[in-house]
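Deviations from the work plan: none for this task. Representative record:
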Amino acid sequence: MAFYRPASYQKPLALGLLMLLLVLPAVLEATGQAFYIGFATRILIFALAASSLNLVLGFGGMFSLGHAAFFGAGAYVAALCMESGISDALLAFPLAMIVAGLLALVVGAISLRTRGVYFIMITLAFAQMTYYLFVSARVLGGDDGLPLARRMTLGGLGLTSDGALFYTALGCLALVMTFLGRLADARFGRTIQGIRENEARMEALGYPVLRYRLVSFVLGGALAGLAGALLANLTGLASPNLLQWTQSGTLLVMVIIGGVGYLYGGVIGALVLLCLEEVLAGFTLHWHIGLGLLLIGIVLFAPRGVAALFGKSSG
Amino acid sequence: MTQLVFEQALNGLQFGLMLFLLAAGLTLVFGIMDCINLAHGSLYMVGAYFVAAAAQVADSFWIGLGAGVAGAAALGLVLELSLFRQLYRRDHLSQVLATFGLILIANEAVRTIWGAQPLLLNPPEALSGPLEIGGFFYPAYRLVIIAFGVAVAGLLYLLVAKSRVGMWVRAGAANRELTEALGVDVQRLFTAVFVLGAALCALAGGLLGPLLAVQVGMGESVLILAFVVIIIGGIGSIRGALVGSLIVGTVDTLGRALLPTLLRVALPADAAATLGPALASIMIYLLMAGILFFRPQGLFPARA
C-alpha cells in the first residue's frame, strides 16, 4: 500500500462537493423531497464513522472488527447526557468523544499486544463484551435501548429541524475530514503509515510503535463516538443494535468498498453502500442477497475499492 | 443446589462439546488456509435448517439429521470450489468482506425459503423424558448430545492425530509451503477439510436444534463464541479447540446459572441482581482477554 499523498484535484473537488451539500437541503425542500434530508444526514454520519475506522484500519494498518463499540458508546453517552439534563451538543458531543476514546484506550492497550488474526478477534470480542454489558444494564434500557426525549441544542440553537441536524453533521464531517487530511500528511500520519508498511524498521528507527498505534486507535474511537452521538440525535434512540458486531462489519464494508487508506475511502464507501441499500430495497424485499453478491463481486473483481479506481491519490 | 450444580455442569459439558464441533472446522480453516470465515456461523444455521426441514419431510429426527448433514457437506463443497478457493490467497480484508456478503445472502435466503418464524425441530420421541443417573435426573436427549460430542471428538482426534491425512493436515497447519514441497496435494486437502467443517457445523446445528430455536441469525452469536474458543485454544490446533470449547462451554453455562446466586452472598440483593447477569454474559470474554494477555498465541499454539 502506498503512502497517502493528496492529489491536486482533491481539494477543489472536496470544496465543490461541500458547496453542493450546503445547498442540498434547500433543493430537496423546494422539490418536495424533504424526506431525503434525513437520509442524507445518515450518509454524512456513517461517512464520519467509516472515516474514523479508516484512520485505524487504512492509515494505522490495524484490522479492528470492534469499531461498533465506540460508535454505539457515543450514542449511549448522548442519550445519557440528555437524560441527565446536558442537552447542548457543545458539551455532550465532546463528552461522547472522551468516553468513546477512553473505551478505545482500554481496548487498544490490551488488544494491541496481539498481532494479525488475534487482533481482529480480540477487538471483536471486546465489542461483544461492550454489547452484552450495555444490554444487561438496566439503566441503559436493556434490549430496548435508551431513547432521547428530543434533539439537542447546539450553542443554544435547536437541532429540531432536519436541516439544522444536516448542517451540524456536515460541519462535523468537514472538520474531521480536514483534520484527517492534515494528520495523514503530517509527521504523525507518516509515522503510523510507516508502521503499517514495516513495523520492524520503524521500531529499529526508535519510534515508539505501540504508542503511535494506540494514539491512532484512541483517536479513531473518539471520532466514532462523535458519529454515534450524531446518530442518536438523528434517530432519537441509542440502540443496542449500534453495538452489534454486524455494525462493525458494515463500517468495515464501507471502508473496503470506498478504499482502504484513501482519505475519502470512508466517505465514498458510506455513500455507495447506503445509496445501494436504498435503491436495492426499492426493487425487492430480498435486497440483502443482491448486496451480498455485490460484496463478493467487489472482492473478486475490484479488490482495492472504489477510490482506487480513480487511482491518483496514491503516490 | 447439588442438583442444580450437577445439571449445569452437564449442560456446560454438552454446550462445550457442541462448540467443539463448530470450532474444530473453523480452527482448521483458519489455521491451515489462513482464511477468516465469518460465514462459518451461516453454515451452522443453514445446516440446522436443512436438518429441521428434512426431519419434517421424513418424519424422523435421525433421517433428518443424516440428510441435513449430507446437504450441508454438499453446500460446503460448492462454496469451497466456487468461492473459498479464490479467497485463500487473498488478504484478511477481502476474506472478511466476501464472507460478510455470504452471511447476508444466507440469512436472506433462509428467510425467503422458510420464513421469519423459527422452525420447530422435535427431539426423537424415545429421548424426550429425563433419565436418572445416581439419584439425579437429567434429560435423556442432552445425554445423547454429550455422547455424540464425545464420539465425534474422539473420531476427530484419531483422524487428526493418528491418520496419514491428519498428519498432512497438521503439517499443512505448521508449514504450508514445506508440505506442498513434500508432494501433498494441499488444494484437495483444503477442500476436504472445508467440507468436513461444514458437515460438523450442520451436525451441531441439528443436534442443538431441539434445544435452541432454529431461526435466522442463530449463526452469528454462536460464531463469536467459536472464535473465542479458537483464540483461547490457539488457532489451528484441534487439541486447543477441544480444551477451549470445554472451558468456554463450562464457564459460560455455570457463570450464567450460578453467578447471580453467588453474588447475592457477597453483595446487597439489588446490586447482585444488576451485576450478576452482566458479569455472567461477559465472563468468557474476560477470560479470553486474560488468556491473551499472558499467552498472546493461545493455550496450544499450532505454529511453534
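The beta strands of chain A are 146-147, 153-154, 157-158, 237-238.
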